[in-house]
Structure formats: structure tokens, C-alpha cells
Specification:
The complex is a heterotrimer.
Chain A lengths: L3 E8 L2 E8 L4 H8 L18 E4 L2 E4 L5 H4 L3 E3 L13 H8 L9 H14 L5 H8 L10 H20 L1
Parallel strand pairs in A: 1-5
Antiparallel strand pairs in A: 1-2, 3-4, 3-5
Helix pairs in contact in A: 3-6
Chain B lengths: L14 H4 L15 E7 L5 E7 L9 E6 L33 E2 L5 E7 L2 H10 L1 E6 L6 H6 L12 E9 L2 H7 L2 E9 L11 E7 L4 E6 L4 H12 L6 E4 L16 H13 L3 E4 L2 H7 L6 E9 L5 E11 L9 H9 L8 E9 L14 H19 L3 H8 L8 E6 L5 E4 L4 H12 L4 H10 L3 E13 L5 E7 L5 E5 L8 H13 L6 E5 L16 H28 L6 E4 L2 E4 L2 E7 H7 L9 H6 L22 E6 L5 E13 L6 E11 L6 H21 L29 E5 L22 H13 L5 E2 L3 H13 L7
Parallel strand pairs in B: 1-12, 8-29, 10-11, 14-15, 20-21, 27-28
Antiparallel strand pairs in B: 1-5, 2-4, 2-6, 3-5, 7-15, 8-13, 9-10, 9-12, 13-14, 16-17, 18-26, 19-20, 19-25, 22-23, 23-24, 26-27
Chain C lengths: L6 E3 L4 H10 L4 E3 L5 H6 L7 E4 L9 E4 L2 E5 L4 H6 L1 H6 L1 H7 L5 H4 L4 H7 L5 H9 L2 E6 L2 E6 H4 E3 L2 E2 L6 E8 L5 E9 L6 E11 L5 E9 L6 E4 L1 H4 L5 H11 L10 H28 L1
Parallel strand pairs in C: 1-3, 2-3
Antiparallel strand pairs in C: 4-5, 5-10, 6-7, 6-10, 8-9, 11-12, 12-13, 13-14
Classes of the chains: A alpha+beta, B alpha+beta, C alpha+beta.
Chain lengths: 164, 798, 287
């Protein structure tokens, strides 16, 4: 019987506990132990970016991290991007408005990546947008509407700041 | 009709769940299911001498291990040859688990079932298979040389020789003032959706029924295949395509070995069982496409008009032919594109190799055909010193020549007759969009800065919406909600939105009242599948026809209730009313109650309906002969033949004189898919297609070594473009409605990808003055071409 | 693609980590894991145990001063990339880090881990090598400082012995009138480069070239450092220096580039990087 470890971490603001072997990938822990299936797995070798989540606010590949290593940290997944009342975040809204997704499989990774990008760079240039999303593969959209979505999200965020 | 919804860029309805992580993809289902993993062949060609599973048996959590020996009856038979064809004389398919020989790396040899995927992989790793390696056949030329065979009983490695002929090409070429001969090559690529394949099966022992979820493009056919293999009636098998994370063709193949084995084992074990393909498996065990060698002979006159064209194509279809020779058929027929040429002959030899099977990937043989035709146009123009756009214009079918019969037989077995189009206008718009006529000044300006740029273009025609049929079912419930279902599946094309737009427009109901279900055999059992840019054309029209039935019924019932002539009624925002009189009205939800002569007033709506005159004369049956209770309707759309979309693309590229790196500076698309249901969605399809085309033109290929090992089976080395590799795509539209279907639409799903390799080749050739005959074109390949051209003037275009 | 089972220790100090490693012969140290975990998931590596040092806070350091930048074993690429102090002391570090994979990988991957992984196609080994930096290794027996020249032994092979952990790397500061540049060519943005070069050029008081060095990645089993001072001459004949490099190297072919192209491309990038480094040196000399 393989040894298991108790893993306590904060996911989308909630304390979660699971028991898993040391080899359980964070992506699998989120999806299969915690039931947060919004985080997708596209390659399991860290290239596609579908599994991107925020670790203490920074985008990381959840397939390139052991769940045990994530213990004690704060994780945000796509399920945690909307406001507590369910209102979609500006990034989520922008992707809908600009048709920034088709099959939706890569989308959670993009949304997490872009959420962090716009937090650090609220008004990104075209080049900063491309650089910011360059680690995420999308096979459907050709990226053009994703780039538009990022700019639109920046606009929505600044409107929100302005209104606050 | 209420608010205009058909033709509007309405936001997609599927997005609400997809942007919040609430989509349900295959691996999101069945969290408590057992997991399957496969032992797959590490050899391209080998005999299986022995399989020893004993090393795996002490893995904690192991449930079962199966090899071919364990498969009973039809479960262990070779997989079906889905699309037979008279010229496919030597079709061969594999077994669900290899029986005695493996013919490509990745072929499944044993299936392991365990508590989770980690443990299943542990067990799979410990199963020892003793192989006797056999010589592998890799590469088209090696396959054609046939020194070694993939199948002992297939001489020459030839599965099929397909000929398409219109006129006497040889004679026309012999009589032509100018003749050119050359060879073209396109390498393998693959659909490579970000979600791999997957199957999840639940056996209900009490009911003797099976529910299967598969990440497929053809759920109804998967059902038929599973039912046949497991000896179950169709009615005891449900197949559901959940949210599918991209398909692009690869998920049309069925049944995959896993689609037979997982349901079979789930029933045998009476346990939920799931297999989620991982990326490495997808590279070696799913399917690839594109690889062809083309020998072209063309005869033409002084104006560049093509008098005769003879193309001999060697097509690599991999180790088996489950999907028949669809790609060769499509390549050889769609090659002609928008042109009328004198005489044409194509001969495609479809060859076995010890590699993964080759089945349609977005474009499905068209990119190869268009590459051939458009490279030919450029060759002809260069040879005559004429403008490349001008030579194309000289060969175009004119707007007054439709319907235009190309004199060939298309993939649906029907004559290749183009229904409508305006190709000169497409070309004109493309030239305007990219600035074709002013380009020489641009080139000179760039050259003065030491920059090297070039321009290229390509035109294509795409047969879309192939039959035989699709169906739609529409039901309006007593809450006024409209439930639309169709059997074909979705992989991100926005069907839930587009089909809802059609239904809302046809019925006169708010878009928000419409709910669409696709790819679920519980809701609609008859369908063909999502491929060949057919979903909008086929299911779209079927749904429109079903809506018209329901609308007619609603008007009839409302007419009875309102004591009005149905022809005086219309539906606005879900309410049937006398035209011009909003007071004489009955909501559709009430009509739905009235449509069902039940005696139970089970809700407020039913009670409210009693104010209307209900019932038929007492001497007649409550449900009239030929009528049915319920406000619902079903209809099918079955076209005589395909409808033909078209487009023209143009690009400007820059090549680095030193590094040979290629940058696409501008990319323009002019596209005609008839009437647009949702322009935003169509544009998205074009963007995505072009991006895959850029991948195929500059980045993606499958690199096999001589022993049949795939050397780049990872996302590190199979170079799908990121955002940084894709240019901004400029688009313009043209609408020539199809006369063949009620909505006047043509397919749009594949269009973007089709001419991209041809266009990029044209532009790079123009920039470099070197012949570009092979795609994809890497900096390394361009550098090598430059070096060779230093010693070989024949490689230069001047 | 799931990792095989392995033993696991999560030490909180370096001493605990060394003890854990000593107790698990053949064990691997896990820091960022951005290279190790894919190898595990593909089952190309199956170490008996992982020593996860992510909780050893004492290794999470980044110090500038004392003539250079000292990067602790847990400092992530992103942290070093963002550090204005590090960029001021040794600008080449940031210039190269921007080419390391993608931001999400740099958020997790560590500089020292990348060095210990010793991938000849990676950026940081070439940077450490061209700068003449060092790696500090700790073992139960004590500590030792390993010069870059000795550290990289072969593809994915470094000088760390069994039971030894790389605790920091030291990148010497840029001397006065010294400029640097980094150039690489990858098939896609963020990919491993087909070839790449880190160039360092030093000018004399008279602004003539007194030293020119390049560190190359992707063309040999270990980072290749070339002294091009003589080839370039004091006037900075960069084409001649590039020609020297072309003649000197013997790169391999792989599925992305032929040996011939890689050699050619290395020459082109070397010339560009040297030119940029010289311009940088001139700028710094005039500041």
C-alpha cells in the first residue's frame, strides 16, 4: 500500500484537506480529489498551459507540481475567478464578449493567466499581451479573439476601478 | 418575427459554463470510475510472441488485465472498415487489442483496469511483451518501393488506386504549347485537439443497458458500433458526447479500439470504467493526416489557361484503413478548386506504412489538393512571366456558369457540381484586401532597408454539407421553452448558439427560451456526424424544417383557440397573435398545453388554457388521424448533393536574409459561405482554421525515424503555434447563398485551413525567388534550399 | 502519464535536506520541478525518493553585492528576472531569463535547479559559463564552490556528487565598460533554442575592445565558452569573430535543425549578440 500524505491547502478561499500519495500531481488533486474539474489537463508535460492555476497569485502549471508541494499554499482555479455571488470577473466577461473561446478546453488556463497578467500590468501593450499569453496553447481560436479579450478585460477592469 | 437573431453576432450560450469551469468534458465525468490504461507497442512492426502479465498482478488496486485472447466473439474481431469503396481493394483494419502482429508504435496490446490511472500505469509498465521485430515500412517512397510489406497479403503496400478523369488529359497536355512537370510534397500533421480522446462507460445491470460517454464527433455511430460489438440492441445503448475539447477530424473515427473495450469491460466487471487518453497516447494511437507526394504534369497556353492537368499522388494512410480513402477522394476532386481546366486526370495510390493511421484532419485532403493546384498556377505564371493573380483569373469559373459540373464524382458519391459562387469577385476582394497591385512599391521600399518580403495568394473551393442527412427535433413545452435537439456533436463550433438562432428566428421566440442539445442519442438517435463542414448546413436546415412543422402546428392549434385563420396568425416573442392585433393572442406555452388533450390540469398553465376553446367535434377522435399530441416536430434534411463554399487568401511574408526565419506580416481572408448564421462564430472558425494552416505551413510535422519511432511525440517538439506565431488575420466576406438548402448556407468550419500552405509557399517563393515545393517550411529547410540553389539554378524561379 | 511511486521527504532546513538525501541513495532533489516532473510523468526517471526542498526557507534567497548576484536554490526565475538590483549588477541575467520558457514556468522554476539540470540547450548554464560564475554545493561533509567550467559535465550531467545539494549560484557582476547581450533562435517563442549565445564585450579606457567572450547553448554537450578577443581584434571585427565561431563549432543535427543550419545560425546570432554587447558596453562606458 502506497504511503499517503495529508495535504491541507486553501483553494478558492476555502480550506481543503485531502489524503494522497506524494506522486499525485496538483492537477489531479484539484480535479479528482477536490472535484474542481474546471482545471483541465492537456499535455501533462507543462507545455499547453490548460492546467494553469494561480499559486499564491502567480500562474503555475498544476501538472508540473506535486500536490504535496502545494500544501499550505493558496490556490485559485477557474472556479474561483468569479465574485462570491457568481458574477463573472471582467476577464471572464471579456472572453465571452469577444468570442475568446471555442471548445473551452484551454480557456481556464488562459483565464487564470490573464487574470494575473492584468493584475500586474493593468494596461498591457499588444506585445505584453502576446508575451503574457504565449505559454498557453489554443487549437481553436487562432488567438486573435483571445488577444482582443485581454484588451477588453483591461478596459472592463479600468472601468470598474474608475467606478469604485 | 421578433428581434432579428439569424445573422447576428450574438454571444455564445455555451460560454457561460465554459468560462466558469462548469463545462463537462469527458474526464470531468465518472469521478469514481475505475481507470483503464493500455500497454502499447513500442515497435513499428513486430510479431507478438508472448505476453506475461504476472509482474503486474501484485499491484495494489489492480482489477483486471485483458489481452486479445480474452476478447470474446465480435469484441475481438477486427475493427470495421467504415467506408468501403470499390477502389479500396485491400482495406485492412486492426484488432481492438493486437492479435499476433503490431503494425505501428502505439497499437494497443493489453488493457489494464485499476483503481486509478496511476496504478493502471504502474501495472501496464510491468507487463512484459515478447516481440519479434519485423522490418518497418516508413515513408511514402519506401512504401511505394515495397521492398517490405506492412501486410503480408497486400502486394505493393497498395490499398487502393483511385482515378478521377474528365477528358483526355494526356492528349491535351501533348497538344499544349507549354508543358511543365514537377513534384510536390506535404508532410504529416495532426488534428491535435487539446483534449485527447476518452471513453467512460456505465453498465446498468438491472436494466441491461449501457451508457457510454465518448469524446467523439459521431455519437450515434459509436452507439451503433458498440451495440453491434456487444450484441445489444441499439435501444439498450446510450452514447453521449459531452463537452468535447476540440476534434478537428480525429474524433470522427469510430469505433476506436478503446470505444469497444471500455464498454465491454465495464459490462463484464459491472463497474464504471473510464479511459482518458494522455498526450503521449494521442500522438501514437490516434490519427494523423496530410502526408502526400504529388507528381504534376500540366499543359497550358500563352495566356496561362490550363489545357490539361495530370496528377499522380502517393498518399500515406498509415497502418490501417478504417476510414477508407476519403482523403484521396477529396484531394483528387477538390484539387480543381475554382478553375475550369481543359482535361484532368488524377490517380491516387493509397499506401500502407508502419505508422499511425491517417484519417481526416480539418481540410481533409483539401489542403494538399489546393497546394497542388495553386503551386501549379504559380509555376505557370512564372513560366510565362505573367502576373500570378492574372493567370488565376484567366482560369476561373465565371458567375454565370453555375451550376458548374466538374465532371467528377465527389466524396458523397454524387456528381461534383458547384451550386453557386462568385470567384472573380473573391479574387478581386483578396487583391484589394492585401494590396496586391501596390505591392511592388512595398517590396522596393523594404528592399532598400535590407528587408526581403514577398506576396502570395491562393483560392479554394470546398464541398461542404455532405449528406446523407441530419435531423432535428423541436419541442415547445408548457412553460414556453423550446427544446431543440440534433444528433450530431459539437466540438467548440458554437452549435448551441447557432442552432438556437435558427430556431428562434423560425419560431418567433426569444433566443433565451431555446435550449439546444447535440450529440446525445437519448435525445436524437439518427445522425451522421460532425465533419466535412456539415453541421450548420445539415443540422441547421433540419432544425429549420422541424421548426417550420412545429410552427405550422402551433398556428393551426392557435387558430382553433382564437377562432382565426392560421394564415392570419404570426408569432412574436413567443406569442401567437392575429397579425396586426396584439389582443387576439395566445402564448406558445398555452398552445403547448392545448396540443396535448390530457384530462389533467397539472399546472397553472394547463388550468389557464381552459379559457380557450379546446377539443374537437364529439364525433371525432381527440387526436386526429395523422396528428400527434404535443407541440413538437421532427424533420430531416437530406440534400441531393454538397454545397460549395469558397475563399481567397493572400499573405505578405518577410524572410530574414541571414537566419532564414519566416514571418507572416499580413494575412488576408475573403470568405464565402453563403448566408451567415452568426458572423462572429464564422469569423472565429476562420481564425482558428488559418492558425492551424500556419501550423501546417511553417511548424507542424510528424517526424518518424527509419524504424518507425515518432521522434517528436510531445508538445515540446510537435510545434503547434502559440499566440506569438500567429499573425493578425484580416477578413472580408462575400455571400452567395446556396440554392440547395432552405437557409441558403454553406459550411465554414474547415475553410480557414485549406489554402494556407499554398499561400505561404507562394509568398515565400516570391520573396526568395526560390521554388517552394514542400511544406512545412522551417527556417532550416529554407536555409538548405538557399544553399542548394547556389549550385542548382533550376531551384530558382527566375 | 503519471509519475511512478517514490519516497518523499519535505525537509525544512538544508541540514534536514542533506540528511534526507543521505538516507535515500539515488534520491533526487525537487525544487521548481519544471524539468523533473515531466520526466517523472513520462516515466523517463524513477528515483526512489524525492527530497522536496521547497520548505527550506533558508535557500530562498537572492543577494546582490560582493561583486555579483548570488541566487539561492529556491529563488525562482521570475524573482531574479524582476529584481532591479540583480539587473543592475549583472544585466545579462535578466536578458537571458526572458528567454527561459514562459512566464508560468519561470514563476516556479529555479535558477539553481536549471543549472543543476545541466541541459545544454538551456539559457542559464551558458550565462553562468560565459560569466565565469560558480555553484556552491553542500553535503554532510561541508561546502565547496564549483566553477562553471567544472560544473557542467555533459548533457543533463553536472558535477554534484551523490548526497550533494546545490545551494546557490554566483553570477559575477559586470565589470566597468562591459556590455552584454543575449540572442537565441527558437522555433516558437519560449521553446528551447536551436542555438543561442550570451555575449560579453569589455572596452578599454580608449573604448577599444579588450575582451570578447561568448557562451553558447544548443551546440555542444555542455555550454561552450569561446574567447573571441583575438578573433575580433581591438576594433571589434564581429563578422570575423562570428566566422571564427562557425569554424570552431561542430553542432549536432536534430529534428528541428540540421548541423549545417545550426552552425550558420550560430554565426549569425554570435555576430548580432557581439554587436549588441559592444553597443551596450559603449553605453555603459559613457554613462
Amino acid at each position: 500500500m502506497e504511503e499517503t500524505h495529508e495535504i491541507v491547502l486553501t483553494v478558492n478561499g476555502t480550506h481543503r484537506t485531502a489524503r494522497a500519495p506524494a506522486r499525485r500531481l496538483l492537477s489531479d488533486l484539484l480535479r479528482h480529489d477536490l472535484g474542481l474539474t474546471g482545471t483541465h489537463v492537456g499535455c501533462e508535460h507543462g507545455v499547453c498551459g490548460c492546467c494553469t492555476v494561480l499559486l499564491d497569485g502567480a500562474p503555475v502549471r498544476s501538472c508540473l507540481m506535486l500536490a504535496v508541494t502545494a500544501a499550505g499554499h493558496e490556490i485559485t482555479t477557474v472556479e474561483g475567478l468569479a465574485a462570491p455571488d457568481g458574477t463573472p470577473s471582467p476577464v471572464q466577461r471579456a472572453f465571452r464578449e469577444c468570442h475568446g473561446l471555442q471548445c473551452g478546453f484551454c480557456t481556464p488556463g488562459f483565464l487564470c493567466t490573464v487574470t494575473a497578467l492584468l493584475r500586474d500590468t493593468p494596461r498591457p501593450t499588444e506585445e505584453q499581451v502576446l508575451d503574457g499569453i504565449a505559454g498557453n496553447l489554443c487549437r481553436c481560436t487562432g488567438y486573435q479573439n483571445i488577444v482582443r479579450s485581454v484588451h477588453r478585460a483591461a478596459e472592463l477592469l479600468s472601468e470598474r476601478e474608475g467606478g469604485a | 418575427m421578433g428581434t432579428r437573431v439569424f445573422g447576428e453576432p450574438v454571444q455564445r450560450r455555451e460560454d457561460a459554463r465554459l468560462v466558469t469551469g462548469q463545462g463537462r468534458f469527458l474526464d470531468d465525468l465518472g469521478q469514481n470510475a475505475l481507470a483503464a490504461a493500455f500497454v502499447r507497442s513500442p515497435h513499428a512492426h513486430a510479431r507478438i510472441l508472448d505476453i506475461d502479465v504476472s509482474g503486474a498482478l501484485d499491484i495494489d488496486g489492480l482489477v483486471a488485465v485483458y489481452t486479445w485472447e480474452d476478447l470474446p466473439g465480435r469484441v475481438g474481431e477486427p475493427l470495421p472498415l467504415l467506408i468501403p469503396h470499390p477502389t479500396l481493394t485491400h482495406g485492412r483494419t486492426g484488432y481492438p487489442l493486437a492479435r499476433d502482429t503490431v503494425r505501428h508504435v502505439g497499437e494497443p496490446v493489453a488493457m489494464v483496469v485499476a483503481r486509478d490511472r496511476y496504478l493502471a500505469e504502474d501495472a501496464a509498465e510491468r507487463i512484459r511483451v515478447d516481440y519479434e521485430p519485423l522490418p518497418a515500412v516508413v515513408g511514402i517512397e519506401n512504401a511505394a518501393r515495397a521492398d517490405r510489406l506492412v501486410h503480408d497479403d497486400v502486394p505493393g503496400n497498395v490499398a487502393a488506386v483511385l482515378r478521377q478523369e474528365n477528358g483526355d488529359a494526356a492528349a491535351a497536355i501533348a497538344a499544349a504549347p507549354h508543358v511543365l512537370e514537377f513534384r510536390l510534397a506535404i508532410e504529416r500533421s495532426a488534428s491535435m485537439p487539446l483534449e485527447g480522446r476518452g471513453v467512460y462507460a456505465r453498465w446498468d445491470a438491472d436494466d441491461g443497458s449501457l451508457r457510454v460517454y465518448s469524446s467523439t464527433q459521431a455519437s450515434t455511430s459509436v452507439r451503433a458500433a458498440i451495440a453491434a460489438r456487444l450484441g445489444l440492441p441499439n435501444g439498450k445503448v446510450e452514447v453521449v458526447a459531452p463537452d468535447v475539447g476540440g476534434g478537428f477530424g480525429v474524433k470522427i473515427v469510430h469505433p476506436w479500439p478503446e470505444e469497444v473495450l471500455v464498454p465491454w469491460a465495464a459490462r463484464l466487471l459491472d463497474r464504471e470504467l473510464k479511459w482518458t487518453e494522455d498526450r503521449r497516447e494521442h500522438f501514437v494511437a490516434a490519427a494523423h493526416e496530410r502526408g502526400q507526394l504529388q507528381d504534376v504534369r500540366v499543359g497550358f497556353d500563352d495566356a496561362g489557361r490550363i489545357l490539361g492537368l495530370d496528377v499522380r499522388i502517393l498518399h500515406d494512410h498509415g497502418a490501417y484503413t478504417p476510414y477508407g480513402i476519403i482523403i484521396p477522394i477529396v484531394t483528387s476532386t477538390q484539387l480543381l478548386g475554382p478553375y475550369k481546366i481543359g482535361a484532368y486526370r488524377a490517380e491516387v495510390t493509397s499506401l500502407y506504412t508502419n505508422t499511425v493511421i491517417v484519417t481526416p484532419y480539418r481540410g481533409a485532403g483539401r489542403p494538399q489538393g489546393v497546394f497542388c493546384m495553386e503551386r501549379t498556377m504559380d509555376r505557370v505564371a512564372r513560366h510565362l512571366g505573367l502576373d500570378r493573380a492574372g493567370v488565376r483569373a484567366a482560369n476561373l469559373i465565371q458567375p454565370d456558369e453555375f451550376p458548374y459540373d466538374q465532371g467528377l464524382t465527389f466524396q458523397d458519391g454524387r456528381p461534383l457540381i458547384y451550386d453557386s459562387g462568385d470567384y472573380p469577385e473573391l479574387l478581386r476582394k483578396a487583391r484589394d484586401l492585401i494590396g496586391w497591385d501596390g505591392f511592388e512599391a512595398e517590396r522596393a521600399a523594404a528592399a532598400s532597408d535590407g528587408r526581403r518580403i514577398g506576396i502570395g495568394l491562393g483560392i479554394y473551393v470546398e464541398g461542404t454539407g455532405v449528406g446523407p442527412y441530419e435531423g432535428g427535433h423541436v419541442e415547445i413545452d408548457t412553460a414556453g421553452r423550446v427544446h431543440v435537439s440534433t444528433g450530431l456533436t459539437s466540438q467548440g463550433q458554437g452549435h448551441e448558439t447557432a442552432f438556437a438562432q435558427i430556431a428562434a428566428a423560425e419560431l418567433g421566440v426569444p433566443l433565451g427560451d431555446v435550449r439546444v442539445t447535440t450529440g446525445d442519442t437519448r435525445r436524437f438517435g439518427y445522425a451522421v456526424g460532425t465533419f466535412a463542414s456539415r453541421a450548420a448546413v445539415m443540422s441547421g436546415n433540419a432544425i429549420a424544417l422541424a421548426c417550420r412543422k412545429v410552427r405550422a402546428k402551433a398556428l393551426r392549434i392557435a387558430g382553433e383557440a382564437l377562432e382565426a385563420d392560421p394564415s392570419d396568425l404570426e408569432i412574436t416573442d413567443g406569442v401567437v397573435h392575429v397579425r396586426g392585433d396584439a389582443t387576439s393572442a395566445v402564448p406558445l406555452r398555452t398552445v403547448a398545453v392545448l396540443s396535448n388533450p390530457l384530462r389533467y390540469a397539472f399546472d397553472e398553465e394547463a388550468a389557464a388554457a381552459t379559457q380557450f376553446a379546446v377539443g374537437r367535434p364529439s364525433e371525432e377522435a381527440p387526436v386526429a388521424p395523422g396528428d400527434e399530441p404535443g407541440l413538437e416536430g421532427r424533420d430531416y434534411y437530406s440534400p441531393v448533393r454538397s454545397t460549395f463554399a469558397a475563399g481567397a487568401h493572400a499573405a505578405i511574408v518577410e524572410v530574414d536574409p541571414e537566419t532564414a526565419e519566416i514571418t507572416i506580416l499580413r494575412y488576408g481572408v475573403v470568405h464565402d459561405c453563403g448566408r451567415l448564421i452568426n458572423p462572429m462564430v464564422v469569423e472565429g472558425q476562420i481564425h482558428g482554421g488559418v492558425a492551424q494552416g500556419v501550423g501546417g505551413a511553417l511548424y507542424e510535422r510528424m517526424v518518424y525515424d527509419a524504424s518507425g519511432q515518432l521522434l517528436n511525440a510531445s508538445f515540446m517538439d510537435f510545434l503547434m503555434p502559440y499566440a506569438t506565431e500567429i499573425p493578425k488575420i484580416e477578413t472580408d466576406h462575400l455571400e452567395t447563398p446556396s440554392p440547395l438548402n432552405p437557409l441558403g448556407i454553406k459550411g465554414a468550419g474547415e475553410a480557414g485551413v485549406i489554402p494556407v500552405s499554398a499561400v505561404i509557399a507562394s509568398a515565400v517563393e516570391d520573396a526568395e525567388g526560390l521554388r517552394v515545393d514542400a511544406m512545412p517550411l522551417s527556417p532550416d529547410a529554407l536555409y538548405t534550399l538557399r544553399r542548394r540553389a547556389e549550385h542548382d539554378p533550376a531551384l530558382r524561379t527566375e | 502519464m503519471k509519475p511512478p511511486p517514490f519516497g518523499y521527504a519535505a525537509p525544512r532546513t538544508l541540514d534536514e535536506a542533506l540528511a534526507a538525501l543521505a538516507a535515500a541513495p539515488g534520491g533526487k532533489v525537487l525544487a521548481g520541478g519544471q524539468s523533473l516532473i515531466p520526466l517523472l510523468s513520462m516515466r523517463l526517471a524513477a528515483p526512489p525518493a524525492l527530497i522536496d526542498i521547497n520548505r527550506a526557507a533558508e535557500l530562498d534567497t537572492l543577494r546582490t553585492g560582493d561583486g555579483g548576484v548570488r541566487v539561492g536554490a529556491l529563488a525562482r526565475h521570475a524573482r531574479v528576472e524582476r529584481s532591479a538590483e540583480a539587473a543592475a549588477v549583472q544585466p545579462l541575467l535578466r536578458r537571458a531569463l526572458r528567454h527561459v520558457a514562459h512566464p508560468a514556468i519561470r514563476n516556479r522554476g529555479t535558477v539553481v535547479g536549471s543549472l543543476a539540470h545541466a541541459d545544454p540547450a538551456a539559457e542559464l548554464p551558458a550565462v553562468l559559463a560565459v560569466l565565469g560564475g560558480t555553484v556552491e554545493a553542500a553535503s554532510p561533509e561541508g561546502r565547496r564552490t564549483i566553477p562553471a567550467d567544472d560544473f557542467f559535465r555533459g548533457p543533463l550531467e553536472c558535477a554534484l556528487g551523490p548526497g550533494e545539494i546545490a545551494v546557490s549560484a554566483f553570477f559575477p557582476a559586470a565589470p566597468p565598460r562591459t556590455g552584454s547581450a543575449f540572442a537565441e533562435s527558437a522555433r516558437r517563442h519560449g521553446d528551447y533554442a536551436l542555438t543561442g549565445v550570451a555575449a560579453v564585450v569589455t572596452l578599454g579606457e580608449d573604448l577599444r575592445v579588450t575582451a570578447a567572450r561568448t557562451g553558447h547553448l544548443g551546440i555542444a554537450a555542455t555550454p561552450l565558452v569561446l574567447d573571441l578577443t583575438a578573433a575580433a581584434g581591438s576594433a571589434g571585427d564581429w563578422p570575423a569573430a562570428a566566422a571564427h565561431v562557425r569554424a570552431r563549432i561542430d553542432p549536432d543535427a536534430d529534428i528541428h535543425a540540421s548541423a549545417d543550419y545550426r552552425r550558420h545560425l550560430t554565426g549569425v546570432l554570435t555576430e548580432r549578440a557581439l554587436r549588441a554587447a559592444a553597443a551596450d558596453a559603449l553605453r555603459r562606458a559613457r554613462d
